[in-house]
Design goal:
- With 270 residues, the chain is mainly alpha-helical.
- Among the domains are: 62-154, no CATH class; 158-250, no CATH class.
- The protein contains 13 helices and two strands.
- It has helices at residues 3-20, 36-45, 57-67, 71-90, 97-111, 116-125, 130-154, 160-169, 173-184, 190-196, 202-213, 221-228, 233-250, and strands at 47-50, 53-56.
- A two-stranded antiparallel ribbon has the order 1-2.
- β1 and β2 form a beta hairpin.
- α4 (71-90) packs across α7 (130-154), α11 (202-213) packs across α13 (233-250) and α12 crosses α13.
- The longest helix is centred in the middle third of the chain and has 25 residues, at 130-154.
- It is elongated, with a radius of gyration of 26 Å.
- The N and C termini lie far apart (56 Å).
Length: 270
């Protein structure tokens, strides 16, 4: 008995019957079991429309690896995100719907997609459903929860060594050290800064810093300070005030801070 041959014959008979008398369409509420194979097909082999062309998601990813100017960094960030999510599962870390909403609000602020219309257009261009986007935000919130766990575990050490080691590994440390040396040439006593900026609105100070440097403080000062490794919101405000004074004193006639660096999106995003 050839079981495979019998199965093949049955399949051909079924297909012929289907063509002769098609069944009614399946309802939209069809329950499809998710499997690793189905996920692979959906995440890699699915065709999406780009302009008047159709490409697979895998073809887009291949082009990123081959042509993106920061392809190695993009791949490393993606894998680090996956590792963080795996750790979250192992540690049974979860987030609330409120935290997911906060992550979405931060994302919309960073990427200037504040209205429903702007977000809908972005979802279309990025071949995502609203549900899939919310899952991305949930994953971002999970990564953020793990960051807070790491920082609390390190206690007073915070993220100083982590950040500087990252810069060293990426050969960016020396340039940042030179920039810091230029800045501390105009270092002021903390009491003078506190007196000068006592009447300054903290939110306004943060907004001005973002406009001047491109480093966006995309949430409340306390949360941003914690994630960035500052001891407190007050510590962050003092650093913002010191940086504003240093920038004002080192500004050249063209309005560009001496030794300035390129614009950045700030403390990173999950």
């Amino acid at each position: 008995m050839d079981v495979k041959a019998d199965d093949a014959r049955l399949l051909m008979r079924t297909l012929r019957a289907f063509l002769e008398d098609p069944p009614p369409p399946c309802g939209a509420d069809l329950d499809v079991a998710r499997t690793a194979s189905l996920d692979t097909l959906y995440d890699r082999e699915r065709y999406v429309g780009v302009g008047d062309q159709r490409v697979t998601l895998d073809e887009i990813a291949e082009l990123v690896h081959l042509r993106h100017p920061r392809s190695s960094a993009v791949n490393a960030d993606a894998l680090n995100r996956a590792l963080a999510l795996a750790l979250a599962r192992l540690l049974h870390v979860d987030v609330t719907e409120v935290e997911v909403d906060q992550e979405i609000a931060r994302w919309q602020g960073r990427h200037q997609r504040r209205t429903d219309q702007e977000l809908t257009g972005w979802l279309k261009d990025n071949h995502l459903s609203g549900e899939e986007f919310r899952q991305l935000a949930r994953e971002g919130a999970l990564c953020r929860a793990l960051w807070r766990w790491v920082l609390s575990w390190r206690q007073a050490e915070r993220s100083t060594r982590l950040v500087l080691d990252h810069l060293r590994w990426n050969d960016e440390y020396a340039g940042r050290a030179v920039e810091a040396a230029r800045t501390v040439q105009v270092r002021d006593l903390a009491v003078d800064l506190i007196r000068e900026f006592a009447c300054t609105d903290p939110e306004e100070l943060a907004r001005e810093h973002g406009e001047r440097t491109g480093v966006l403080i995309d949430t409340d000062l306390g949360s941003w300070a914690e994630e960035a490794g500052f001891d407190s919101a007050e510590h962050l405000l003092l650093a913002l005030a010191r940086d504003r004074r240093a920038a004002a004193r080192t500004e050249d006639p063209t309005g560009v801070p001496a030794g300035g660096v390129g614009r950045s999106s700030g403390g990173g995003s999950p």
